[in-house]
Design brief:
Distance between the termini: 84 Å
CATH class of one domain: Mainly Alpha
CATH topology of one domain: Helicase, Ruva Protein, domain 3
Number of strands: 0
CATH superfamily of one domain: Cytochrome C biogenesis protein
Largest sheet: none
Strand content: under 5%
Radius of gyration: 35 Å
Order of helices and strands: HHHHHH
Helix content: 55-70%
Amino acid sequence: MIRALLVFCCSVLFSWQVLATPVDTYEFKSAENQKRALALAHELRCPQCQNQNLIDSNSPIAKDLRLEVYKMVDAGKDDDQIIEFMTSRYGDFVLYKPRVTAKTYILWLGPVMLLALGLLVGFIFVRKQRIQAEAPSELTEEQKAELDALLKSDAEKDDGNKK
């Protein structure tokens, strides 16, 4: 029992090393440049991982792109120039927040249009249900006669069962 507890405590104590991630050791010219570079790297998507930004990704291409962003920031390029360089090299896919262009209208307006379409279909469906519920169903003369005949036959059966 004590041995199992000791093994558990040691594994918990040293498990923090498993969660460690590699750290970039690039030295920036100023703290402002470092903040800008990190913010840009958070906005850019890793081309290999596709679901992580450059900071969160451990892939070799992400490491190279982080270094490229860091160097470009220290070289004095502004954010637009860096983003333009990345998109010209990797396409708009590298942006987490794509620009609003003719190519991306469907991306930006698609969810709004689907929501509007869903609301319209729901409105029409509910309206039809209310109209059907409110409209009294009128029986034709044939249906009334058939109903009367059924009621009479049921009444006769009930009278026969009571005797």
